[in-house]
Write a structure and sequence with these properties.
This protein is α/β, with parallel strands linked by helices and about 350 residues long. Helix content is about 30%, strand content about 20%. It is built from 13 helices and 15 strands. Strand 6 (about 80-90), helix 4 and strand 7 (about 105-110) form a beta-alpha-beta unit. The chain starts with 8 loop residues before the first strand and ends in an 11-residue tail after the last helix. The chain binds (2R)-2,3-dihydroxypropanoic acid (DGY).
Amino acid sequence: MGIKHLNKLSLYLTSAASGFNVVAVDGNIFQQIMAEDKPWALISEVGEQGYVEEVVDIIKEHFHIVCLKDFLENPVLHGPNIQAMFVWNCSPAAEPSLLRSLPSLKVVTNGGVGIDHLDVPLISSFGVKVANTPDVVSDATADLAMGLLLASARKIVEGHLIAVDPKTSYLPLGLMGEEVTGSTLGIIGMGHIGYKIAQRSKGFDMRILYHNRNRRSAEDELAVGATYKNMDDLLKESDFVVLVVNLTAETTGLIGHRELSLMKPTATLVNVSRGLVVDQEALVEALQSGKIRAAALDVTHPEPLPRDHPLLSLHNVLITPHVGTNTYATVRKMVRRMVDNSVAAVKGLPVPDEVKLK
Ligand SMILES: O=C(O)[C@H](O)CO
């Protein structure tokens, strides 16, 4: 709506739900103007732990935004206008009470590929679409998986702590690590991210094994030199096992006591998928007893772990706080995709990354 074309604007009320904006000029002349204005979106908090301003600006190009905190203070005022809801895996859940207070909602759009935190059947039952951001997350997540693998193998974090601590001295043969070049990598979950990890590992001359629900094409396998294996053989033969599966009923607890026992005592488990894919009690036991050498985890359950969780005090664990996609470039790409999905849903067009009910 062309607010800037109206002189002496003294009051501006919007009612996207009715399709009209009601504007009072000079306090006496009322005009009803068909809304050409931006739709409204609900987002979680801006600032610390929330959206960085730059990302909010991308959303603001297409939407008026209401933060969840402001919305919850006055759901009756904002609720009817909101047509899109932007969420991340750490956002409060899209619960029935929230969905009921958003009668114009068209889409819940998730930043990230994993949608295990969203109840898709529930959201769909409100006539609301769900979308995610596949593909654009793959490079950053694959980079982080390699970073965790290298950091764990070469004890990079321990090395840093020694280097900056004036009380410790360098030992010529201290901090011995595992050789990455030429080692065997087992990738469990060979979707977009898994494949990107394979591409990167080729540069380290690694022998690449993979397991996936569906075997990749012969061309895909050849391009990265990956060999398909059943899970047990992959676990037995790998020096590094990287988990990149979606969290589903089938993959919950995929790596438990039995699977960890199959791994080499010198092997490292890297998890960039979801914490629940691993039975954490079994993992603690395996790390304490030396069944495996180490774990490097970008994901845990819950996130963050309680401060007294045993994983936090084990010397052979490296943990990052679910930062797989956290690069400026990737988050920008994710938010653009979230905006594209939301704009399409609001306009009633096909939603590019719609997550369909199975
Ligand atoms: O699912 C994803 O893409 C990442 O974990 C970010 O949530």
